[in-house]
Amino acid sequence: MTKFEVTILGCGSAMPTTLHNPPSQLIDLHEKLFMIDCGEGTQLQMRKYKSRMSKLHSLFISHLHGDHIFGLPGLLSTLSMLGRTNELNLYAHREIDFLLDPLLGYLGKYISFRINLIPLNPDGDELLFENRSMKVTSFPLKHRIATNGFLFEEKETPRHIIREMIDFYRIPLRQISDIKEGADYITSDGTVIRNEILTLPGNPAKRYAYCSDTAYAPGIIPYIEGVDLLYHEATFAESELVRAGETYHSTARQAAEIARDAGVKKLVIGHFSSRYNELETLLKEAVAVFPDTELADEGKVLPL
Q1: H-type helices in 87-146, by residue range?
Q2: Which of 72, 73, 272, 282 sees the fewest Cβ atoms within 10 Å?
Q3: Active-site residue 123, yes or no?
Q4: Catalytic residue among 28, 37, 67, 228
């Protein structure tokens, strides 16, 4: 089984506190390390939780509010000091140039790698990255500025060969690949040996959805329906419902309603307002609607 896990580096919100770091996560998927958002202090969190900076493949920035991007200058500078030479893909809204241009001008010839900015589509879903084993898609959220969520998906693996059956029917090696992909085998006398006799199902594909900084938005449900793990912001308790609406954030109950209506398997809530010194109220409000809910916390590792 290949690794697919999420590490929470920060789950606070805009106002700094000593309880939580600003938003950032690492997704370790099929030997590649992806970062979502990069709040202030993110590189220190990577050090603290022993994440290998050299493995970082790409960065995904949900939107351009400071608590999601102020860690970028330090992280990019450190990657250069470590001697990175591989190009780094940065998926973000094109307006991030306001931060990147002066930063790269300041670093100048001393930066050791190329940064490729891939603009996000704020108005619809879009395939961002794909290889043989996985893909990453973005989709629009509902916030005060252009904001995107992200969906990380494994691809279904080929079916597993039953070696004894392959040997029994003396199937040529050149046909094994087609059988893994679901083909039947036809013997020399025309007998059809069904694929189900020759193989077992492949490993089930897992999916992770990240939705941070969004008002209650049922329109996102088609993008996240049935995912194995959903991270959804829960900035406020229900007592602050009016404030949540004014600031285009969600309450814990609203996050749970999205999880319930989307039929997800597990919900993790985060992006907690600095007004909460304890989070049990948020958890109880979410669990009342969607029982399989847990709180995000710095250093928490969520395996899929």
Answers
A1: 97-107
A2: 73
A3: no
A4: 67
